[in-house]
TrEMBL record, chain A:
<keyword id="KW-0813">Transport</keyword>
<keyword id="KW-1003">Cell membrane</keyword>
<dbReference type="InterPro" id="IPR003439">
    <property type="entry name" value="ABC_transporter-like_ATP-bd"/>
</dbReference>
<dbReference type="InterPro" id="IPR003593">
    <property type="entry name" value="AAA+_ATPase"/>
</dbReference>
<dbReference type="Pfam" id="PF00005">
    <property type="entry name" value="ABC_tran"/>
</dbReference>
<keyword id="KW-0547">Nucleotide-binding</keyword>
<keyword id="KW-0067">ATP-binding</keyword>
<dbReference type="GO" id="GO:0005886">
    <property type="term" value="C:plasma membrane"/>
</dbReference>
<dbReference type="GO" id="GO:0016887">
    <property type="term" value="F:ATP hydrolysis activity"/>
</dbReference>
UniProtKB/TrEMBL annotation, chain B:
<feature type="transmembrane region" description="Helical">
    <location>
        <begin position="79"/>
        <end position="99"/>
    </location>
</feature>
<dbReference type="Pfam" id="PF02653">
    <property type="entry name" value="BPD_transp_2"/>
</dbReference>
<feature type="transmembrane region" description="Helical">
    <location>
        <begin position="12"/>
        <end position="34"/>
    </location>
</feature>
<feature type="transmembrane region" description="Helical">
    <location>
        <begin position="54"/>
        <end position="72"/>
    </location>
</feature>
<keyword id="KW-0812">Transmembrane</keyword>
<feature type="transmembrane region" description="Helical">
    <location>
        <begin position="105"/>
        <end position="129"/>
    </location>
</feature>
<feature type="transmembrane region" description="Helical">
    <location>
        <begin position="272"/>
        <end position="297"/>
    </location>
</feature>
<keyword id="KW-0472">Membrane</keyword>
<keyword id="KW-1133">Transmembrane helix</keyword>
Amino acid sequence: MEYVIEMLGIRKEFGGFVANNNITLQLKKGEIHALLGENGAGKSTLMNVLFGLYQPEAGEIKVRGKSVKITDPNVANDLGIGMVHQHFMLVENFTVTENIILGAEPTKGGIVNIKKAANEIQALSEKYGLDVDANAKIQDISVGMQQRVEILKTLYRGAEILIFDEPTASLTPQEITELIQIMKRLIQEGKSIIIITHKLKEIMDVSDRVTIIRKGEGIGTVVTAETNTDQLAEMMVGRQVTFKTEKGPANPTEEVLNVQDLVVLDYRGVERIKKLNLTVRKGEIVGIAGIDGNGQTELIEAITGLRKIKSGKVLMNGQDVTNKKPRQITETGLGHIPSDRHKHGLVLDFTIGHNIALQTYYQEPFSKMSIMNYKEVSKKAKQIIEEFDVRSGHGEASLARSLSGGNQQKAIIGREIDRNPDLLIAALPTRGLDVGAIEFIHKRLIEQRDKGKAVLLISFELDEVMNVSDRIAVIHDGEILDIVEPKETNEQELGLLMAGEKRKSAGAVKGDE
Amino acid sequence: MSNRVINILVPVISVIIGLIVGAIVMAVSGYNAVDGYIALWNGIFGDSYTIGETIRQITPYILAGLAVAFAFRTGLFNIGVEGQLIMGWAAAAYVGYAVEGLPKFIHLPLALIAAALAGAFWAFIAGVLKARFNVHEVIATIMLNYIALHVSNALIKVWADGGDKTQRILETASLRSPFLESITQYSRLHWGIIVALLMVVVMWFILDKTTRGYELKAVGFNHHAAEYSGMSVRRNIILAMTISGMFAGLGGAMEALGTFEYVGIKGGFTGIGFDGIAVALLGANTPLGVIFGATLFGSLQNGALNMPNEAGIPTEIVSIIIALIIFFVASGYVIRVLLEKFNSKKEGK
């Protein structure tokens, strides 16, 4: 079998930091090849080398048997390599067609022939079963369809080899299934695919072979059919990984958080939380399950003081904190792992060390008589970096911006858990993280619970909610529809609840407790 | 080449390229470039008098640069340093001549504080407008510049009973120093440079040492994260503008209490405040960098005065040459990129 792409012994350094060392990846024609590795293992670096964004220090790249030098993305394009980015590169208020032809507009006498392009794109979409409306505006279509537009973009430009960077990160379970079918269709049409991911389940579902890298080193390539998730996880992390988080029964005691008849508006004045009631007790993890956009963001922001509460009450440790300032609420014993780490969680242009102090910078020993003691800050930062395995180029002096997403997240989680709050709100704490990190974070959440603290977990991943929570509150359209125990439910039932269908059994009354 | 070498090479090469292009401009216009640069050099370092005058010129540039840099570091673009400086100038001059009977160690600090407060107040207005009503500080401060210019002119008219400048400030409020004058052949060098250097330390201290500085920077970089961590975004924006304006006001005091010892009606802006933007950017918005930027600006401005006299080059051409040199220093980034490319190629071989 011939190889369409061979990356042999690739090495890439960034000022002394070795991001890739001696990595070999060989892509056969017509296969789906997974590139597996932890956050910060060097997957993106390797693909950026292939895409011409970085120049390797050593190693060789062959395309269809011929040695090539990919000096910039245009060269990659000409070689038929296309990239479907994790963060879509689309102009929101352009149509699908306009986005796809952007930069390669078919013109006749200086005039863009949109109609012809739209027809071509529609035909291409049908050929590969992408189901994209070429004339729809990007802002009006779903995330899944936006991704298919990205795929179309590469196909329209004649890509034979498609690189998918973490393609399932922002998709719903249904959309993931569809994507897998599309990938298989692409292969049938003779394309070859590299998929970057750290989700083992998807690898087992979709790929033919897997290349694993760990901490920048190439570990090896295995045939998917001859391996299993345990072995893959071990190769990726370098040790055995458990998927089911071990935990004993919960011992809930007194109430920490009590939300009563909460009503919250969004920025347009639309009611997003409608008379919501919720309690969280010490010694338990309450999971909030729901589809994105059902009021999760507004609920967290209202509890943490980032958003005005229209009516209703929030009690923390018995204290009324309704519409109090964020710091006053924090000081009643609240920790908050925000869902958007770049917007709320970190000051990206601060060092990791300074970010570690973000919630406590004004307290002793970090600040004494209004003077910062940065020595203490970096001491604390080193401790958290060590304890939470935050990897970066220059330790606590690295800019937060320079860390990979997973390591940024670990730093935030370290900061919040280290304060040992009575209530820890964890909003999408494992989004974009690899199994090793997810396992670690779940353990830490359960540890907090076992120490007699309360945890409120918000997640879109059913697995996570089922695994970690002691009680699951299903949110739909700004209301808690029902509260169930993980043992007494399953994914199907939760799925229905999340879609807004109330249980018909007697349990439905429980929602109003 | 290590990073360190590149860091030093970049400004050096920038200045050299600027000088070469300036020389071409002079040659094309029919003037002797060598004579021109000798005149420039003599105008900066020629004798102790010119050195004294150069340092005097640098002083307000340092303060204007600090004002802009401080705002930048806290996420604000204070384009109103000019207006704040004008208000500081007027306030210092007024306190300098109108408050009588105080000993120097009270009167002089009082005049400086008046200038700092006037500048701070002028910036505070823009800060409040931004924090409370979301008015962009660039628009607010540009408009406040015009208001400052004409308010100051109107005040001077009242203070001077219809004249076009106030009376001289009292000796007890003056920054002038017979000692400094005597060692620089009676230049107008005054103690203001000490005030300016002290403020460099103050800016560094506020930003890098105090808890407030941590907040100001956090709000400037990412106000969402600042809000999440419980900081008051509004209060910090207002405070950042106010501190920035304080530096600018002190810049005005340098002119009022040192160089001129009065305040006169102005036909237009002094330009120091606007040059402060370039000074801050040349200095990468760091306190030490501002000294470098101000030195470059002040030296060139002062040295340029000598070029028409000594080398007979018209002031228009001189302005072009000075602008070219600064232009190339400011484009240091391009030179850095070229150097790094050259470097990596060499290492690749």
